[in-house]
Amino acid sequence: MRPRVELPLKVLEKNIGNVIFVKLKDGTEYIGKLESSDLSMNLILSDAKQVSDTKEVLKNYGTILIRGSNILYISVEPDKVTFYEQES
User: What is the Cα–Cα distance from 29 to 48, expressed in whole angstroms?
Assistant: First the structure.
């Protein structure tokens, strides 16, 4: 029996109030508490922090809006996100 697959918007809806990790197409990475999302995957994060490749906090922003069209991927389990160094 295959595991049940959930739609991305439902996963976001279930994780409102939880901390998520968001990577944007330009490479910028944020961790924050998901306050809201919509059908376009626009996100509102509170306690948002911009983080580096090694999860080091670069800036604290507070509450931010991330436009869905700029998102590369989202992790609802930020503790499981692994950063890999690119090989030269």
Answer: 10
